[in-house]
Design goal:
Elements: H1 4-11, E1 31-39, E2 48-62, E3 66-79, E4 84-95, E5 101-110, E6 113-124, E7 130-136, E8 141-144, H2 151-163, E9 168-173, H3 177-180, E10 184-193, E11 216-225, E12 235-242, E13 247-253, E14 258-268
Antiparallel strand pairs: 1-2, 1-14, 2-3, 3-4, 4-5, 5-6, 6-7, 7-8, 9-10, 10-11, 11-12, 12-13, 13-14
Helix pairs in contact: 1-2
């Protein structure tokens, strides 16, 4: 489950509505957003009987300074046998606006026991691949070949694909999940633009002056291990993706269960001008 956190943390980023005309660059806007978590519909064969909790995210910065994301998820999963699992996941990310480097700090606990405590930096080399050095655990390194995106760049590419009318979006992404030890292959589908009565699916906090004029699409992105051969997705993220990058009406589908995350707060922050 922990591997989804990095992409959610860096993926739910925003761009101003007025900067989203076709052909214009996607500009990221700082914002805060919170989601309420519950057990999803895909749970018939699951060992979980209920879920509750919150996800909180703050995104700041611009293309000149780089983008910083602070993410926290606190979730209680109730087992069908009467036990509980208390999850506390914290993620802090920084991504260079030019996609040259990416820093991550990940701290996960389950029932008060630390399951992951990792800090590191990924740097892009000339052929587009990345080299990763971990500060914690100390001394670990990794190199990943091929064309790989960091999360903010991946979201920008997804928005641009949706604006251009594409229905398929594939990418390799390094997001710091699994302690910076893996790259994930993604396969995405982009639905028709959400218009008219179809917008009723949106949470109340996602309807208002800040977002009403922003186009949005129903998207589904499956995350796979970056290994050869046929395989099932590690998880699939279904959501409403706004043209400003904000995600709404989230469903995380795992092999045996799913989680729903509904936005309960959205606050755009001040946009800092960038000289680039």
């Amino acid at each position: 489950m922990a591997q989804l956190l990095g992409i959610l943390a860096a993926g739910t980023i925003g761009v101003p509505a007025l900067a989203n005309s076709p052909g214009e660059a996607v500009l990221l806007q700082p914002h805060r957003i919170a989601y309420e978590v519950s057990l999803g519909p895909k749970s018939g064969n699951s060992s979980f009987s209920a879920a509750s909790g919150l996800i909180a995210l703050e995104f700041t910065g611009n293309a000149c300074k780089g983008y910083e994301t602070n993410f926290r998820q606190a979730t209680l999963l109730a087992d069908t046998d009467g036990g509980n699992r208390q999850l506390d996941f914290r993620v802090k990310l920084w991504e260079d606006g030019g996609g040259k480097s990416f820093r991550f700090n990940i701290f996960n606990q389950v029932n008060g026991q630390t399951t992951r405590n990792a800090e590191g930096e990924a740097k892009r080399v000339a052929d587009g691949s990345i080299s990763v050095a971990l500060k914690r655990p100390r001394g670990s390194r990794g190199d990943f070949d091929g064309s790989i995106s960091f999360p903010s760049a991946m979201m920008i590419d997804l928005v641009e694909a949706a604006r251009s009318g594409r229905k398929r979006f594939d990418a390799k992404v390094f997001d710091g999940s699994e302690g910076g030890e893996k790259v994930y292959q993604t396969i995405g589908t982009i639905g028709e633009k959400l218009e008219g009565d179809r917008n009723k699916r949106l949470e109340p906090v996602m309807r208002g002056a800040d977002l009403d004029s922003v186009p949005r699409w129903v998207t589904s992105i499956a995350y796979f291990e970056n290994t050869p051969g046929d395989k099932l997705p590690v998880y699939t993220l279904r959501s409403v993706t706004f043209a400003n990058g904000v995600l709404s009406d989230l469903v995380f589908e795992f092999p045996d269960f799913s989680l729903v995350a509904k936005a309960v707060r959205y606050e755009p922050l001040k946009v800092e001008a960038c000289a680039k």
